[in-house]
Design a protein that fits this description.
Elements lengths: L2 H12 L9 E2 L5 H11 L11 E6 L3 H15 L4 H13 L2 E7 L10 H21 L3 E5 L7 H7 L5 E11 L21
Antiparallel strand pairs: 1-5, 2-3, 3-5, 4-5
Helix pairs in contact: 2-5, 3-4
The chain binds flavin mononucleotide.
């Protein structure tokens, strides 16, 4: 990689940020682009190549079905009708939503669960970064609904965990989260 390419990669990495679903409009990524994002996710470090994750994209008519499940999950969790409708409307905002599903092998002889979870995190980061590189806004979201039995059974198979959803679309506003990151020096030191 030459210096110009290296700079571009670093700029992309350091400029990565989430964009909330209220700022995500049409169009979302195409089917081919979703494959590209998945390919990027598959480059995450993965001990023993277990691929402890998979994605399920929701677009088109399936969004209404997912939104209705969000509403039902909110009601089941004790939200009032108004709150549940808000959850449904939020689910419809992003043109494409991608469920992140972890499949952790708890009995693996060589790779403990925490290493597999680290891979899932890396996959999410790569997916988000690739989305931004293609010009899309994205944000990883979860909340109590990711743990709801209704949504878990709709998205996951036996033994799988619903991590949450990545909302994707074209940013209407390039709005960054307000919270600041710590200085790098606060996060790395020299062990001796
Ligand atoms: C697995 C996972 C679940 C998340 N769930 C939520 C969520 O439900 N709501 C939320 O506001 N942020 C959630 N976040 C954090 C946002 O995706 C985002 O990273 C955060 O707002 C910081 O913004 P940034 O990505 O621009 O630094 C989650 C992140 C991860 C990795």
């Amino acid at each position: 990689m030459n210096a110009t390419d290296a700079n571009l990669v670093l700029q992309a990495l350091m400029g990565r940020h989430s964009i909330g679903q209220r700022y995500l409009d049409d169009p979302g990524p195409s089917d081919d682009e979703l494959l590209t994002l998945t390919e990027a996710a598959l480059r995450a470090p993965d001990h023993a190549a277990l691929v402890p994750f998979r994605f399920r994209a929701v677009r088109g008519a399936a969004r209404a079905r997912m939104a209705s499940l969000f509403e039902q999950a909110a009601l089941a969790a004790g939200k009032d009708a108004e709150g549940a409708v808000l959850d449904r409307e939020r689910a419809l905002k992003a043109p494409v939503t991608v469920a992140v599903i972890a499949r952790i092998d708890l009995g693996h002889p060589q790779v403990p669960a925490h290493e597999q979870w680290a891979c899932v995190g890396g996959a999410i980061a790569h997916f988000l970064l690739a989305a931004q590189a293609l010009g899309y806004g994205a944000k990883m979201l979860s909340g109590a609904k990711a743990r709801s039995a209704l949504l878990t059974s709709a998205f996951c198979g036996p033994g799988e965990t619903l991590v949450g959803w990545i909302a994707l679309g074209t940013p209407s506003l390039d709005r960054r989260a307000k919270h600041l990151k710590p200085a790098a020096g606060e996060v790395i030191d020299f062990w001796s």
